[in-house]
Amino acid sequence: MNINQDFNNLTFDLPKNQSNVIKVIGIGGGGSNAINHMFSKGIKGVDYVVCNTDAQALENSLVPNKVQLGVNLTEGMGAGADPNVGEKAAIENLTELRKMLEKNTKMVFITAGMGGGTGTGAAPIISKLAMEMDILTVGIVTMPFIFEGKVRQNQANKGLEKLKKNC
Asked: Backbone phi, then psi, for 134, in 5-degree steps?
């Protein structure tokens, strides 16, 4: 018995023409890169969403579900590694984020890179919204390497503490 062969033949009997109950949301550059990779591998059975303040990164993503955060605040230019900007950008788009989560969502995986602006600032806001909507929420994040510096490390730790409250 070859386990890899068995997994290749695995299929799920999922309802057609209906949103999946699991959403995997990539927030910021790091989170969006992870989602782009999963999407490119053809992993099925979940809805992928990328959320970013960087309009060019969103445009380059093949993921069909996109939310540009902080259009008025950042004008599509990113959060400049400032978590406060990332947080305000997510707050600016709470209505759109709520609409996205209302579509048959029972579970959310949030992925983000901690230490930058959008992922660090917006991930706790989006996870809080999901929890308020009684959606099971799981956070999967990366932390900066030591060589990225103390400022980035401190920002990452603060962002992680905020995220833990809602995951």
From this structure: 60, 40
The tally of CA atoms less than 13 A away on the side-chain side of residue 154 is 4
- The CB-side HSE value for 2 (13 A sphere, CA atoms) comes to 4
Name the residue type at position 103.
K
User: Interior CA angle at 127 toward 126 and 129, to 5°?
Assistant: 65
Terminal Cα-to-Cα distance of the chain (whole angstroms): 38
Distance of alpha carbon 147 from alpha carbon 68, whole angstroms: 30
In the chain the domains, ranked by start, together with CATH numbers, are: 19-164 (3.40.50.1440)
Q: How far is CA 37 from the centre of its chain?
A: 13
Q: Which of 161-165's residues contact partners 24+ apart within 8 Å by CB, and which partners?
A: 162/124, 163/110, 163/112, 163/114, 163/123, 163/124, 163/127, 163/139, 164/139, 165/124, 165/128
Q: What is the pLDDT of residue 20?
A: 80
Residue for token pair 């949301």: 25
> What are 25-37's pLDDT values in tens digits?
999 999 999 999 9
